[in-house]
Amino acid sequence: MDTIYYGGPILTMEEKSDRPEAVLVKKGVIAKTGSLREVMDAAGSSVKKVNLEGKCLMPGFIDPHGHITMNGQMSLCADLSGCTSFEDIVSVMKAFIEREKLTEKNAAIGFGYDHNFLKEQAHPGKAVLDQVSKEIPILILHVSGHLGCANSPMLKTAGIGANTPDPSGGKIGRIGDSQEPDGYLEEAAMMQVQGSVAKRIKIDLIKMLKAMQQVYIENGITTAQDGASNAMGMKMLKAANTLGFLKIDVVAYPLISDGGKALIGKNKQLVGTYKKHLKIGGYKMLLDGSPQGRSAWMTEPYLGGDPDYCGYPWISDEEAEKYALQAVNEGRQLLAHCNGDAAGDQFLRAYEKALEESANPDKDKLRPVMIHCQTARCDQLDKMAEIGMIPSIFVGHVYYWGDIHLKNFGEVRGNHISPVKDALDRGLCINFHQDPPVTKPNMMHSVWCAVNRISREGKAIGEDQKIDVYDALKAITINGAYAYFEEDSKGSLKEGKRADMVILDRNPLETDVMELKDIKVVETIKDGKTVYKRAEKDCISA
User: Fold this and answer.
1) Does residue 70 lie within any of the structural domains?
2) Which among 293, 334, 342, 292 is positioned nearest to 314, based on CA atoms?
3) pLDDT tens digits, residue range 453-479?
4) Is the pTM of this model over 0.90?
5) Domain holding 88: CATH number?
6) Are residues 380 and 341 in contact, defined by beta-carbon separation less than 8 angstroms?
């Protein structure tokens, strides 16, 4: 049945001034925009009329970077996001073990603690986690996803002891001047432990598949990403797609350093083309860690601690160059995790070299993406503009860890995190992400961050990097579509495009900028069908 939407502000995101009175949807496609009369005339004899009653209709939000399968996996973990002390963590983990009836044959996983906001201002190592259990292996993951802590049984299960060296691109915490592990794990070391316990985790596949996308749908997102897909993640996505659980589109990017080529080879039918709601977009590459966790790779040292400490890379220049050339030669888009500016330098060097060496005639059309861009410098943004690289900016860092970045980097570097305005001034097609499950995929919160630049403590962070509301809305709609090569089918309410839409409880362009984060998603519409609708009592009138 044809559907007409009218009776409220409509933002097409084609132009700021483009405000049609109504939109007609036919067979999941935008068939007509214009006056109510024009749209009525274009509709068939059988038509459903939806009165927006003052609410705002705009294109569905597009998540340009996140980990949707990891979001599902976190539904099986203890939630540590509300913990403010070691005591809280011990209490939550004990309750989780009891509730799930876990034994020494299993493993207890927690997610979401942040040492920056714990009373102890430290990571809870094995001495703390052994208080939870000395029999059941326990691993807790930092909110960044890059750090974690294990108890003694977990370290033993993973084969980590005094004689275990730090892995390349990772660090094992030690007790004092000894080599005895203290339970703290960084980057590759943490991933090593995660891999060793996969078979011990009690998995409810159906629960995971249903949970992984729900928070996206509730936040108006109609296209999401699985960045750094592995074999298990692809199995989850394919199962959800086959069973009809996927209600939104998902673009997967296998990790190039971890069997990515083989994974693409096994799923050729998904490369660049949706099958139902799933496709493979290219490769993902990890180059460094977390700035709030002090593992991001910087060109200048962190403040506090070792005066020469700059973090560290995940891989060598030679490996980065090899992977970049592989992606370009295969004609695949490459996403690279770069929080620190040294990691950004490495990506730019590697990609430039790949462009010079590759004989692929389409090598300049691949739209590589620098993910996070927390400490990207202006000269790096210039180079990105020169080679057609897209900055996908985790602008929520301004709020969540802006105060921490001032502490770690000082006033100059700390105020230049998430350099959105500098990127826009260079004509770069910026987009915003929230890196779920690191933070919830709340697009309007990202818009609020980009427009206001305020930290948790209420400090102004880089006021010169503020942008206006419309440009921020472009970053979560049409610009996100561009990053997926889908700007001709998504990202704006244009005739012929897919009817991926969101209804908000008020118009962002006419809302006080300090209230942008309070805007609620009323309804999420994918291909013309409602996939989420908020209870009316939770919405306000426009």
Assistant:
1) no
2) 342
3) 999 999 999 999 999 999 999 999 999
4) yes
5) 3.10.310.70
6) yes
